[in-house]
Design a protein that fits this description.
The complex is a heterodimer of chains A (146) and B (83). By secondary structure, chain A is α+β, with helices and mostly antiparallel strands. Chain A has four helices and eight strands, in the order βαββαβββαββα. Chain A has helices at residues 12-22, 54-69, 100-117, 137-141; strands spanning 2-6, 28-35, 43-50, 72-80, 82-84, 89-97, 120-126, 129-132. Chain B is α+β, with helices and mostly antiparallel strands and 83 residues long. The longest helix of chain B has 11 residues, at 29-39. The radius of gyration of chain B is 12 Å and the shape is globular. The chains are: A alpha+beta (146), B alpha+beta (83). Chains A and B meet through strand 3, helix 2, helix 3 and strand 7 of A and loops of B.
Chain lengths: 146, 83
């Protein structure tokens, strides 16, 4: 179980390979990356603000919840903050389990929860100005199935 | 009691500062918000739509009617948009 919150970019391929190599008992690894969209050229930059301290606690809590619900060998959450450009990787989650069903469902759970229960806020900068991204009702609804 | 107040995202921008210390007797989050609203226009504006305000007490999410007993840090922010 690991959580990293950082401003620096990370090497997604290297993180995935290292994660898979460390989960020696797992038969299945699922990884997901979130990427900054350019929204058809409308978006020039994205800025992510977070609540240092609470962010790490919230993510660790979400990971612990996943570990209780499913049989997981390992999990990893990396989330960046600060200014990002379109195409850059914002965050990733990885899950390792003996069987793929647990790995897939736990990855979805981690994503659903970190979208609306971890204290991050996105601000988009574009030609038409800057604005905070509004939370989507669908993201809140996604929590109900858990 | 003395509280450390933190503001994030557009709440921080509307209020114009990221954090402040406040001496208050407000028993609940809701009472604290009422007190802040009464201070200045920028607070009234930031807290005009409580449906868009979330709160954390000592870094744990809480409801707006939660009591402030023993709390040291109160953070106000809009719904989270991570991922």
């Amino acid at each position: 179980m690991a959580v990293r919150v950082q401003a620096e970019a990370f090497d997604y391929g290297a993180e995935c390979a290292a994660f898979a190599a460390s989960a020696s008992q797992a038969g299945a690894v699922v990884t997901f990356a979130g990427i900054v969209r350019d929204e058809g050229g409308r978006l020039s930059a994205m800025e992510i603000e977070h609540y240092p301290g609470m962010t790490e606690r919230a993510l660790a809590k979400i990971e612990a919840e996943a570990a209780q619900r499913w049989s997981l060998e390992a999990t990893l959450i990396i989330h960046r903050f600060g200014p990002l450009r379109p195409g850059e990787i914002i965050m990733m989650v990885a899950t390792a389990a003996r069987h793929r069903a647990d790995a897939f469902v736990a990855a979805e759970f981690l994503m659903d929860y970190l979208k609306s229960r971890a204290p991050f806020w996105k601000k988009e900068h574009g030609a038409e100005g800057s604005d905070w991204v509004a939370a989507r009702e669908a993201d809140e609804d996604a929590l109900k199935r858990w | 009691m003395k509280l450390r107040l933190l503001y994030f995202a557009w709440l921080r921008e509307r209020i114009g500062l990221p954090r402040e210390e406040l001496e208050t007797e407000a028993p609940t989050v809701a009472a604290l918000i009422e007190e802040l609203r009464g201070r200045e226009e920028r607070y009234a504006l930031a807290f005009s739509d409580l449906g868009a305000v979330r709160v954390a007490l000592d870094q744990e999410l809480a409801e707006l009617d939660a009591p402030l007993d023993g709390v040291r840090e109160v953070a106000f922010f809009p719904p989270m948009t991570g991922g």
